[in-house]
Amino acid sequence: MLRLAGSQKIAPLDPDAAEYFTDVDVLRDIMIQRTTQQVKSMLDKTVEIAAATFGRPSQPAELLPFPEELDEDDPPMTVLLPDGTKAKVRV
């Protein structure tokens, strides 16, 4: 039996219906473990979908170095964004 907080009501406990924890440290560890497992599962699924959609790269993409300063003399280019918006960018 369980007495509900702030109430005089008593509720029966059914060990087959749910997990019960009496130690907050055990509960914390279990919640962290389950959350970590869920995040890993979501990331694995995301990688799987990306690989099916775009293929797996043969090697990691090489990042271009970011310029220290933009050359103000270079004219901006106009690009069309997926939503139809036009944007001016300098490359």
What does the secondary structure layout of this molecule look like, with pairings?
Blueprint: E1 2-3, E2 10-11, H1 24-54, E3 77-80, E4 86-89
Antiparallel strand pairs: 1-2, 3-4
* Secondary structure tally, helices: 1
> Rg from C-alpha positions?
27 Å
Instruction: Order the strands across the largest sheet as they lie in space.
Output: 1-2
Write down the overall mean pLDDT: 84
Structural class: alpha+beta
The tally of beta strands, per DSSP, is 4
Termini, distance in Å? 69 Å
Outline the biggest β-sheet: 2 strands, antiparallel
Shape: elongated
**In which range does the helix fraction lie?**
25-40%
SSE ordering: EEHEE
What fraction of residues sit in β-strands?
5-15%
Oligomer: single chain
Uncertain spans: none
Tell me about this structure.
The chain has 91 residues and is α+β, with helices and mostly antiparallel strands. Helices cover 34% and strands 13% of the residues. It is built from one helix and four strands; from the N terminus they run ββαββ. The relative contact order is 0.06.
Characteristic key phrases:
two-stranded antiparallel ribbon; alpha+beta; 1 helix; single chain; 91 residues; two-stranded antiparallel sheet
Question: TL;DR?
Answer:
The protein is an alpha+beta fold. Helix content is 34%, strand content 13%. The longest helix has 31 residues, at 24-54.
